[in-house]
Structure formats: C-alpha cells, structure tokens
C-alpha cells in the first residue's frame, strides 16, 4: 500500500463518519419538539418532520450561536443588540442561551461532524498533492 491508498481510505472513512454524525444531528433536530418550538415559535413543526433546508438552517444557527458564545457571552449579547433576528424571527438572546444550555448533545454532534468535514478537506488536498 502506498500513501495515496492510505489517503483514499482515510478520506472514505472521514466521509462516512461525517455523514453519520451529521445524520445524528439532523435526527436530533427532527425529533426534538422543544428545540423546534424555541426556533420557530409555537407549533409550526409540531409532530411534523422538517425538510433538509430547515434542518441545515438550524445546524447553521446552532453553530453560529455556539461559536459566538465561545468567545464570550457578552459577544452574544452584542450580536443580538445589533441584529433584530438571527436567521429565524423567534430566536432572541434568551432562546439562544436556552439552546446553548439545553441542547449540548446537538452541539457535540455538530462539532464532531465539523471535525470530520475538516478531515475531508485535508485528505482531499493531500490526495491532489501526492
């Protein structure tokens, strides 16, 4: 086995693990009625599954909220003071803090998924270099 074979195997494994953790995060979003009501307000998606676009928007929103909050909670406050809403009209500073505190499992799955996405980029680059 040469280096290119190992890179391809690593790339395939990274794609598989990225897909698994991304699917786990999507399933968490689709099955969690509390999260959907915090984001959309009311019963928009109560007992209904969401489409791919809305699931990806929720993942983007949770990622953005957690990254901003990781700098400081004051940065999150300032972010919401400057903007009326973040992707969704119902998301405010209070709901974003609830999302951070109550949905850590979702954030963990998104972080693992992002890690494998970075690995996919690295292995793809290495594949073209070697």
Shape field: elongated
The helix/strand series, from N terminus to C terminus, equals HHHHHH
Rg is: 17 Å
Low-confidence stretches: none
* Number of DSSP E strands: 0
Alpha-beta classification: mainly alpha
Total helical elements: 6
The quaternary state of the protein chains shown equals single chain
Strand content: under 5%
Distance between the termini: 14 Å
Helical amount: over 70%
How would you state the average pLDDT, rounded? 91
Major sheet details: none
Describe the fold and architecture.
The chain has 130 residues and is mainly alpha-helical. Helices cover 79% and strands 0% of the residues. It contains six helices and no strands. The chain has helices spanning 3-31, 33-40, 52-71, 73-82, 93-102, 104-129. It is elongated, with a radius of gyration of 17 Å. It starts with a helix and ends with a helix. 18% of the residues are buried.
What is the secondary structure topology, with strand pairs?
Blueprint: H1 3-31, H2 33-40, H3 52-71, H4 73-82, H5 93-102, H6 104-129
Helix pairs in contact: 1-3, 1-6, 3-4, 3-6
Q: How would you summarize this macromolecular structure in one to three sentences?
A:
Helix content is 79%, strand content 0%.
What descriptors fit this protein?
130 residues; mainly alpha; single chain
